[in-house]
Structure formats: C-alpha cells, structure tokens
User: What shape does this take?
Amino acid sequence: MLTGSAVKEKRIALFDFDGTLTRKDTFLDFHVKRFGAVSLVAAMFKAALACPLSKLTDRSEVKERFVSRMWKGTLFESYLSCAEDYAEREIDGITMPTAMEVFRKHLELGDTVCIVTASMKDWVEPWASRYGVPVVGTELEVEDGRITGRLKTPNCRGAEKVSRVKAKFDLNGFSKIFAYGNSGGDREMLALADEAVYKWRRAPRL
Assistant: This one.
C-alpha cells in the first residue's frame, strides 16, 4: 500500500496512539489488566458522579478524578513498574498491522516520528523507545515519590495535542507534516497536517 522512494526533505509524522496504532484504548485496557473490569467501571462511575454537572463533559476533569481514585498515594515507582510491564506484555499484541506498516515506513524513510496521545505516557513511552520514537502524552503529578491524584499536564487531546507538539518541535523546520488519528480528540492535530489520515480510510502517499 505504500509508495515512494528515499525522501530528502525534512518531514514529521504525528501518530495518535489509542485506536490509531492500537486496536484498543490502552488507558482503559491498562486499568482493566491492573484492577479488573468491575473496579474500572465502578471507579469511572464514581469519578463521573463526583464531577460538578458543568464539568461532566470535561474529559480532563473526569480523568483526573478517576486517576485520583485509582492511584492517589501510590508510590510512583510501583505504578511505573505496572506501566512498563503492560508495555512489555500487552501492546505488541494490540497494534494494527496497517498502522505499524506506515509507522515503520516513516522511520525507514528517515522522517521524524512522534506519538501524541491522551493516554499516560508511562506505558506508551517504554514501547515507543524500542523504535527511538518520542512520546507526547498526559502526565501524572508526583510529590515525594507518590502520585498526588492530579494531572501534571493537561489531558493531551484536542487543541492540547497541537500545543504540546509545537512546544516540542519547530514545525516551520519541516517541509511536510503527516498526522494520523481516529477520533474527535485528534481533529486539531489532523488539521495541522499537510497529509492527514483519519481511521485509515485511505493509504497515505509516502
């Protein structure tokens, strides 16, 4: 499905993770694997109930309250061990072949590649590091070695994805921007690109 020869110009490819490179939402899957489906659903329900009605549709607010219920007070090193174990055991089994073909092709062509995800970077980064690919993602706040239950960074979706990418890269230095996504949370990042692919509905011209 891929075409193109060696690329001389400087290009960047921005990949959403959940539902784009993977078949599953890893934020949910990670917590199911760690706590079980019943505990996950209960925590999600309680997190939603605890939100003021005006903020019920704010995913950042709900996510932070959920994280607080599941992880507040936990040693960060203990949490990180769970995240790294999940990356090692689970992620390869839920990646999509088409997505990985494009992902690897960008690397072969010498493009700059970055994963931009709303999930916590702590389980995405160990997987991405095998390919030498940086990750921009949501981060947890840690104080005195323990998770506070708050987010260190805003939830990395929507316009926040664009802000974080621009903070990391000088996009003016690239001759072409590729972006891959699968949801409304990727809309702004896709709009940023010269070549945007949504839900793998077409093959990118590489």
Q: What stands out?
A: The radius of gyration is 17 Å. The chain has a mean pLDDT of 90. The chain has one domain: 11-198.
